[in-house]
Amino acid sequence: MKLVRSHLSWLESESIHILREAVAEARNPVMLFSAGKDSTVMAHLALRAFYPSIATVPMAACRLDRAFRSLIDFRDDFAAKHGFELI
Fold this sequence. Notes:
This protein has about 90 residues and is mostly helical. It has three helices and two strands, in the order H-E-H-E-H. A two-stranded parallel ribbon has the order 1-2.
């Protein structure tokens, strides 16, 4: 179990490094956010990468025309709670 934990820690560290590097190199960085599991994990990694700062990268809200209302509410609440700008 310890090996799994250390591998996950390494993956998290590598992801945070990539996010920091991408934001430093990009002129206008934006994260796509659909409120699905993948984009929610990426948003949490961004929060860890730039802690204690407020979220420095705006989120481009993916169009969710056919989504459940609860998913849209989750997206909006998540962005507001964590200080992300939805564009």
